[in-house]
Specification:
Elements (H helix, E strand, L loop, with lengths): L1 H26 L9 E5 L3 H7 L4 H22 L3 E8 L7 H21 L6 E5 L7 H14 L6 E8 L1 H17 L10 H6 L11 E4 L18 E4 L9 H13 L8
Parallel strand pairs: 1-2, 1-5, 2-4, 3-4, 5-6
The structure holds farnesyl diphosphate (FPP).
Length: 263
């Protein structure tokens, strides 16, 4: 009996651990040092399409396909949070036809999320200002968030009509209102208070930020949350970014020395 128990423990514990580690070593990823939160600026859809003589919309469509694969892979790896920049507060400046196409793509994504990402157990949230979105879109966001909220896998934040500065202004407004109501002494304001006013309240900061297509800027993305993120700029356009590229980024992240201001 004792021997059986011992063997069981070995199987589940030591031996199990050995195999898990071995698998991680094979893929080169240290499963004990994964980024908890990955942010992605999915750039380069338009250039990807142009290079192929296709309309920009084809690039966005391919980008949406790429996104499904990357979220699935991130979830399989055990990443807890992923935030993707789908539409910024500045993207309204694009030609109306492109804006409409992106909105339809996002709508389809939200509607189909239940089916397409069900197997992956993904929880979907939209972050950003909703009031400028169509009523239909606002309703769909609420529906999709509700449908997926009890899932236990990765949390996917879709940044939609999102702007980092707008998010910070909103957080500041909330604090000002509390101070004006006498509920908060301005001298007592903490980083946690600011954090609580963000769309991502309660979530960990971004550990790894990836931007595709060679541009090296933040473009108003998660200005507060990326304070200590490791940034990786990939030359490939977003539709060409594959799960193996995600693996590479995680390996680079794991090779960096994160000191958070220490030595
Ligand atoms: C930037 O590429 C990309 C966007 C503004 C939109 C990102 C959207 C997707 C990847 C697809 C839809 C997303 C979801 C969640 C379904 P760009 O158009 O600026 O490319 P360019 O710099 O080459 O012109």
């Amino acid at each position: 009996m004792r021997a059986v128990l011992f063997l069981d423990l070995c199987h589940e514990g030591i031996i199990g651990m050995f195999f898990r580690k071995n698998k991680a070593i094979t893929s080169g990823i240290d499963m004990d040092n994964l980024p908890r939160h990955i942010g992605i600026i999915m750039d380069g859809n338009g250039r990807w399409a142009k290079k192929r003589g296709l309309p920009r919309s084809a690039g966005h469509k391919a980008g949406a396909e790429s996104l499904k694969k990357i979220v699935t892979e991130a979830n399989n790896l055990g990443i807890e949070y992923i935030t993707v920049y789908a539409f910024s507060t500045e993207n309204w400046k694009r030609p109306q036809a492109e804006v409409d196409y992106l909105m339809n793509l996002l709508m389809d994504y939200l509607i189909n999320a239940e089916k397409t990402l069900a197997g992956e157990n993904v929880r979907i949230r939209a972050i950003g200002s909703r009031k400028e979105l169509s009523e239909e879109m606002q309703e769909q966001i609420i529906k999709t968030e509700k449908l997926t909220r009890d899932r236990t896998g990765i949390v996917m934040n879709i940044a939609l009509n999102y702007g980092g500065r707008e998010e910070l202004v909103n957080a500041a407004k909330t604090l000002c209102r509390k101070a004006a109501a006498g509920e908060l002494n301005p001298e007592d304001v903490t980083e946690k208070d600011m954090d609580d006013g963000l769309y991502t309240a309660g979530q960990p900061d971004v550990d790894l930020l990836i931007r595709t297509s060679g541009e090296q800027r933040l473009s108003n993305f998660m200005l507060w949350q990326v304070s200590y993120a490791e940034m990786i700029f990939v030359d490939k356009a977003w539709p060409d970014f594959k799960p193996k590229d995600l693996h590479e980024c995680i390996k680079i992240f794991q090779g960096r020395g994160r000191r958070f201001g220490g030595i």
